[in-house]
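RECORD TYPE: inverse folding
INPUT: structure tokens
STRUCTURE:
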């Protein structure tokens, strides 16, 4: 991901933990930036180890698993290494031939990772549970968008073992002052034609917010 959101980060974090139990050394990597303060706080408070490839590049010998997205997406950079697997919940668009694909029409990719823990009788640590639940909340707009029965089941599993104080902190600090300025500019400039709206934001704005 060039601008990873909580769902991408939490899914990678959970997968890294599961692979570690199988003595597979994996690391979470992304390209570009993590702009949002709330996402940065999630990474810090949950001690998620994630590296920008500008500082820690992959090599041609690496195997790559893409989570919460597919190779050739516009928000994906082509890294050195071989993409061998994909775990995703978005509409399938790539023609790339992965060796393994787990594609499910869930509200969040994190819900797929919850299934991995449950299907293999693996206990979910509190930090991983907190990351996964926050990711599902963000991607489903607090269970108001594209929610499936599986997302609700994941909520029931994760809620008792996650850190509610951290979840409340993440959820109450999602907007920065610069975000409000961008929203204000968008609202002032919006022009609607039928069901399509166009806005002009006359200053630089983080890609993640756009």
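DESIGNED SEQUENCE:
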């Amino acid at each position: 991901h060039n601008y990873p959101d909580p769902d991408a980060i939490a899914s990678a974090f959970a997968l890294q933990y599961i692979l570690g139990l199988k003595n597979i050394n994996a690391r979470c990597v992304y390209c570009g930036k993590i702009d949002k303060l709330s996402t940065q706080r999630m990474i810090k408070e949950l001690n998620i180890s994630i590296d920008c490839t500008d500082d820690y590049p992959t090599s041609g010998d690496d195997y790559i698993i893409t989570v919460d997205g597919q190779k050739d997406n516009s928000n994906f950079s082509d890294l050195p290494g071989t993409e061998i697997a994909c775990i995703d919940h978005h509409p399938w668009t790539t023609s790339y031939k992965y060796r393994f694909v787990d594609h499910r029409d869930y509200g969040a990719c994190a819900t797929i990772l919850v299934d991995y823990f449950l299907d293999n009788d693996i206990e979910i640590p509190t930090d991983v549970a907190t990351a996964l639940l926050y990711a599902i909340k963000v991607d489903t707009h607090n269970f108001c968008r594209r929610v499936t029965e599986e997302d609700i089941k994941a909520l029931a599993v994760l809620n008792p073992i996650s850190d509610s104080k951290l979840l409340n902190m993440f959820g109450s600090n999602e907007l920065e002052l610069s975000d409000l300025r961008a929203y204000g500019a968008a609202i002032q400039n919006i022009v609607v034609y039928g069901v399509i709206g166009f806005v002009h934001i006359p200053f630089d704005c983080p890609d993640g917010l756009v």
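NOTES: The CA atoms of residues 125 and 161 lie 8 Å apart.
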